[in-house]
Write a structure and sequence with these properties.
about 325 residues, alpha+beta, BirA Bifunctional Protein, domain 2, 9 helices, about 25% strand, globular
Amino acid sequence: MPSAAPLWHPERFAARLPFLRRRGQLAAATRAFFTARGYTEVETPYAVPCPGEEVHLAAFATEARHPDGRVEPLWLHTSPELAMKRLLVAGAGPIFQLARVWRNNEGSARHAREFTMLEWYAPGADMAALIAETSDFLRAVLPPVVTCQGVTTRLDRIETLSVAEAFARHIGVDVLASAGDAPSLAAAAGVRLRAGEDWEDLFFRLMLERIEPHLGRDHPTFLTHWPAAQAALARRDPADPRVAERFELYVCGIELANAFVELTDAEEQRARFLADRARRQAIGGADWPLDEDFLAALGYGMPDCAGIALGFDRLAMIAAGARTIGDVLWLGGDEA
């Protein structure tokens, strides 16, 4: 086979075919799991007026050309979250979606610019219930022991760890006491503050370098109760407003999912959106109209619920023991 053979070359495709077949089995098992639990599978638009308000995600621009000659700017969504929450307001009940999503400027062994996101929303669920359901899902669709990128994880038990506990265990600092004060966090962690680095930048540097390497290795880790500033669509914890009811899931050392007990207060959500928009614009990010329709739906009344976004391609990597995300994509990925 030529060293630079195209992705469709039969010999190159044959090397990925076992991973791709495992992906197909995983999709069927996922649908069976949620259907058996009373969830409805939904589909929402991919091209939208507002792709989301995440500060550090870059969206793909497109446009709609109308019969009357109007040209409407649109964006490929970075998540189906805002659309699915409209369906919760409408009365759809428990819902899930295997959605194609797009995030520009991404590409690595674990990232692709176009990928599949599994999202589901459970009305009435709290964080403990969603953690339990997510654990049941993993055990239903994966074998009891999985190995990916050299890390082996057993699914017979889980670890639940708060962000504050993780910082205390692995760095020896009280991260919540330093919130917003980058020099204080740097001094406590024994690191030099970089030029222009604010508290959030340092928080994520410490997460990446000193905490994430310990997560989701022997067993899955649910990292819970994130600082409120890192959870724009999550409800603050009534017991401790410094943190939000958010968790991330790690399996085989891979960040696999992000979940919220959802914020239902439209005015607080508007304020958070405006703050995120200002931050995105300050770093030169793209702009689009504020999603007033979503805020109107939230104001009409969204039921209390918990929701989760899980990277389906990464789950397929773990299920198949694949080396890179490109191994589980039918026509490969954009690995750096």
